[in-house]
Amino acid sequence: ISWPNPQSTATNIQLSVTDQENTTVKATWSITVSTSGFKFVQAGGSNGSGTLASPYNSIANMAAGANSTDIIYFRSGSYNVGTAGWVSYPVQWIAYPGESPIIDMNDRELATPGNALVYFDGFVFDNMDYTGGVGYSGLTIGCSNYNTIRRNEFKNFSNTTNENNNYGMLKAMCVDTQYYNNVIQDNKLHDFSGGNAIGSLYHQSKMLIENNHIYNALRQGS
Question: What is the rounded CA–CA span in Å between residue 185 and residue 189?
């Protein structure tokens, strides 16, 4: 779906999808174009207000200054998650067009809020070692629907414990109810040991896992 010349508003937009069984589903909606709710992060420099001209300079400052529903654009650079675990700050992150920001996981798990709409697109997630006590995986999707993890690279994950089999660079950890329509698409997952590229996916229905490249699974302790 493309919109070459977006205007301030558009109404009565209709999308029609037909599958191989000739079943057609239609949806109609309106769009309002606005710069409201978009914030920016750029590594280095002084901390700003989150605008394109005056971006936040770290994940910590973004977490302190942005609203939980904001969509965050990351410029190139390396960003450390610090001591982040279960988070309440925005989790709709997009790499700035043509750039590949690096998220240093700091040997920790980055777990999204249970009811948040998650969108991660275009990042390199690195340094996800688990040695006990700070998390079971790299990125954990919370308990919600319509989450999207696409066009990212996950690398350098190792687990040296034997506590359970949930470990992975990606996982969905919900045990209370069923969740739907989550997407893991067009990612690279590589260089991992003592765990899995994709860990446990609890209570997921109609989930799309497509076109992911998984390689360099190393032996335990190697």
Answer: 11
